[in-house]
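A quick word before the example. In earlier lectures we treated sequence and structure as two separate objects. From today on, think of them as two lines of the same record. Here is Related to Alcohol dehydrogenase 1 written that way.
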Amino acid sequence: MSFEIPKTQKGVIFYEAGGKLEYKDLPVPTPKPNEILINVKYSGVCHTDLHAYKGDWADHVPLKLPLIGGHEGAGVVVAMGASVKGWKIGDLAGIKWLNGSCMNCEYCELGNESNCKHADLSGYTHDGSFQQYATADAVQAAKIPKGTDLAEVAPILCAGVTVYKALKTAELIAGDWVAISGAAGGLGSLATQYAKAMGYRLLL
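And the structure line, produced from the sequence above:
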């Protein structure tokens, strides 16, 4: 299977924090040896994207500028870097907040890659999913089963991962009670569904 990849694409970019959002023609990125290139079909919008756009965290983590935001992207793998393993052209893939990490520090070795001092963040330090074609580290990109509705899975790549990890690391067992704060909101509604699927009793 092969795809015809254009030289240019449409995307949303800004050149300074809080500056004009420009919808324009942009070059299609070339994947590095460790990256896959994803033809983005759907992208969610997270409140973190607003923080990135406004530069709210730039004093702590430098913001890449210019920047294409977005970290809830779902699409199809259309190209791969030379060292990529475990993927093939045509696979469905997701772009998450964590685009890549060193995989060698204590945080990474304990499964807390998002705390890595060298973490590469989609839509913050790495151009994200608000474009037709985006790159992602092959190790951190989410594998999506064939036949999945990409429109439904896109927001799961941030909001869903956030609440799932919270429930997973709570070290609960089926039958335990779990309190979900803000259960009526976006993350809360996902947490409620996951908790029920895990066999927990809910305190809303």
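Notice the following. The domain at 8-150 is CATH 3.90.180.10 (Quinone Oxidoreductase; Chain A, domain 1). We will return to this example when we discuss secondary structure assignment.
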